[in-house]
Amino acid sequence: MNLVIVVVVLVATTLFITLFVRGKDIPPADPVSPTKHLDDRRAAIYENLRDLQFEYRVGKLSDADYQQTKLSLQKELAQVVSEIEKITPKAQAV
């Protein structure tokens, strides 16, 4: 019996909220940064560089592999930072 009352109250509350809460009562969503995906990628590259350096120091990588991978990650990082710099002035001007 108690379970039935709890279920009825839960269903009634759900219906009330669904049907009577207006869209304007809900706060607006936080704006998404135009560079968020680039910031996430930049953070991932920095993490990869730290991991690469650690693996090199413990002897898992040869000197040639370390230098080649490091150079590749640095080039990718430069491209990402360049893209962020291209977008950022436009976002700040608005």
CATH architecture type of the domain at 32-94 = Up-down Bundle
Mean pLDDT: 88
Strand content: under 5%
Terminal CA distance reads: 60 Å
| Largest sheet descriptor | none
CATH topology term of the domain at 32-94: Methane Monooxygenase Hydroxylase, Chain G, domain 1
Highest CATH level, the class of the domain at 32-94:
Mainly Alpha
Shape assignment: elongated
Estimate percent helicity: over 70%
- Regions with pLDDT < 50 over 5+ consecutive residues? none
User: What's the total helix number?
Assistant: 3
Class by helix and strand content? mainly alpha
Report the order of strands and helices.
Answer: HHH
User: Nearest-angstrom radius of gyration?
Assistant: 26 Å
Report the strand count.
0
Quick description:
By secondary structure, the chain is mostly helical. It is 77% helix and 0% strand.
Topology:
Elements: H1 2-20, H2 36-57, H3 63-93
